[in-house]
Amino acid sequence: MESFKYNPQSSVADEFICHDEILASLQFAEAHKNDEALLAQILAKAKEEKGLSHREALVLLASDNAATNQQIEALAKKIKLDFYGNRIVLFAPLYLSNYCVNGCTYCPYHAINKHMPRKKMTQDEIKEEVIALQDMGHKRLALELGEHPTMNPLEYVLESIDTIYNIKHKNGAIRRVNVNIAATDEASFAKLKDAGIGTYILFQETYNRQRYEALHPTGPKHDYNRQTEAMDRAMRGGIDDVGIGVLFGLSTYLYEFTALLMHVEHLKAVFGVGPHTISVPRLRPADGINPEQFADCISDDIFVKIVACLRIAVPTAGMIISTRESKETRERVLQLGISQISGGSKTSVGGYSQAHAENSDSAQFDVCDNRTLDEVVYWLLGNGHIPSFCTACYRKHRTGEAFMKLCANKSIHHFCHPNALLSLQEYLTDYASPATKALGEKVIAAEVAKLPPQSAKFVLQHLQDIKNGNDRDFYL
Ligand code: SAM
Asked: Using CA atoms, how far apart are residues 374 and 431, in angstroms rounded to an integer?
């Protein structure tokens, strides 16, 4: 592999995700992973809650020192509460089309899979899906599509976003659409921004160039630079909330973890702001895909530790976990830093509406947590979390640097907590089962009692408005 000089400010993929720097960091971590003085020094820095460098965080992740691990967990829990409180934002993925020209060997949508039924929803079908999602109580979606220049052009994505934002069914509304589509050019990112998207999400899959090229043998996604430099183009196109992640299981986790943090450092160095979110997907079984074919699957314990170390290394980034994980694993990581989860998800095209229930054979991967949204909300409430359907920040222009400033000085709670409670009340009044409603209202009353008087007044007044059916969508 050609040698590049590490430079977080460079816009060249191999310079900001520098293979040699990753290898040097791995060597350093291996040599120092049980160096108690260094571990204590890194933990002391982490306690300042301003984050860690990729090397520092890697030493923590690599360490198998039990006392260090306990401290990492305790600190991750504290940082989660300090920056994101006990709120958990809920969302659902919406698959619009599984036509794809790429050859990703781990994804059943790859072009060579000839028996996968291909589907692309019409605008009317999208309406049915969105109504089904609204009737579950969802307010926030992540759009998912395969890459196909003629079947899924940008115009189709833009038209679909417009359709989704304009569907008003009963008290339902989708108020934030995040988008997870293939890496594109700056002009297209600018159009997505104009369409009113929230976050642009793109998983790197693997940061290891050699592994990346082998796992993506054909199609435009084969281009490692196009993928790795995508967030720079998105930011230059005006999207200031970007979501990064790797698909754990495709390559060695210590390598991926280091590179992911180098990506964060790069975005901060060039754009002054890190990623809005970090996702931690793990490879799942899918049509013709057995994760065990891939040598680098990780255990639950390592997965949990990765989440905790990311939380400590980047305190301000939201962290997302999907229904790829089981209820039990989700329960463990929720405490350690996750701030957003999906619930009641379907990974097939047309999976939500009755009319398309037969479409599960177009699923991208097997969902591990199959509970309904109501079951997820009840479970969150019972575990001390506040399920939030809030979508206020980007509608109030609290995006990019503006959001990160409020998050970094721990004042985002003043907005997020009242908003979370009001959006939860909407869910309870309009969609919840009697048991969830009873538990939720008890939890809301207890949380309102902890708010400062001004916020409590605002929340109490609008809780009543929602219960009376007067209006919806109150936020600060
Ligand atoms: N087509 C878009 C792209 O190329 O980035 C992304 C959309 S795809 C629906 C979303 C993500 O699903 C991928 O980025 C990949 O990380 C993940 N994925 C693919 N196959 C998977 C599998 N077998 N198990 C878990 N996640 C998978």
From this structure: 8
324 CA: nearest ligand 1 atom: 25
* CB 101 near ligand 1, within 6 Å: no
Whether the CB of 181 sits within 6 Å of ligand 1: yes
Q: Is 289 in the pocket of ligand 1 (CB under 6 A)?
A: yes
Task: With a cut of 80, say whether residue 359 has pLDDT above it.
Answer: no
Q: How confident is the model at residue 365 (pLDDT cuts 50, 70, 90)?
A: confident
Work out the mean pLDDT of the chain and round it to a whole number. 95
Which of 180, 189, 192, 367 is the pocket-test mutation for ligand 1 (most atoms within 8 Å of CB)? 180
82-108 in b/e burial notation, b at 16+ Cβ within 10 A?
ebbbbbbbbbbbbbbbbbbbbbbbbbb
Distance from residue 101's CA to the centre of ligand 1 (Å):
14
Query: Phi first, then psi: what are they for 282, rounded to 5°?
Result: -120, 145
Beta strands in 364-424, from DSSP E residues, in sequence order: 386-388
H or E element that contains 97: strand 87-97
Residue located via tokens 């409670």: 421
Note if the pTM is more than 0.85: yes
Query: Which residue from 130, 143, 141 is spatially nearest to 92, judged by alpha carbons?
Result: 141
- Return the residue whose CA atom lies nearest to atom 18 of ligand 1: 107
Q: What is the pLDDT of residue 356?
A: 56
**Residue 352, SS3 per DSSP:** coil
